[in-house]
Amino acid sequence: MPEMPLKAAIIPVTPFRQNCSLVWCTRTGEAAVVDPGGDLARIQDAISANGITVKKVLLTHGHLDHAFLLEGLSEQGQRYGFQGSESCSPDRWLADGDTVSLGEIVFGVRHCPGHTPGHVVLFHDEAKIAFVGDVLFRGSVGRSDLPRGNHEQLVRSITERLWPLGDEMRFVPGHGQMSTFGWERKTNPYVSDLALGRA
Prior knowledge:
The protein has 199 residues and is an alpha+beta fold. 21% of the residues lie in helices and 29% in strands. A hairpin with a 4-residue loop joins strand 2 (18-25) and strand 3 (30-34).
């Protein structure tokens, strides 16, 4: 069986136990860090252990535990005891339908608001893996009670932008265990077909 073009490692970081993901192109060794919310030494150790070169930092959304970088996070970091956090602006804002290249692999981008207005999900069709941040969890969905959250919008994002990617698509949530869209569509008490009256 040929080697998959993409490999990934999940690195839980910070007291929030947020899933930072290290993803790389197996042919070129070019890597990206998805949602590096903190514990940079642990992330750097994983990079060194895999002998890869980080070319990009990809953020699903700008909350403190996922970004550690965006505007205003310096103050938030101090409030929660995170030292060394800096505010910055991204080189590129991602929109629905965009793609992100990494070596010889290409990620698709879906805009999935509801948890936050600009939240995006990154996915790779061939490897059948998605990095969904705080949109969807195993057995749950992202919070929508935070500033600028919207529960109805969150449900639409999941059912209209994620489910069409296919039941076999595995996903790395922002926190907790991986699952598949198919399993969540059958069992998730918030967005399953049964829960939404679509069975």
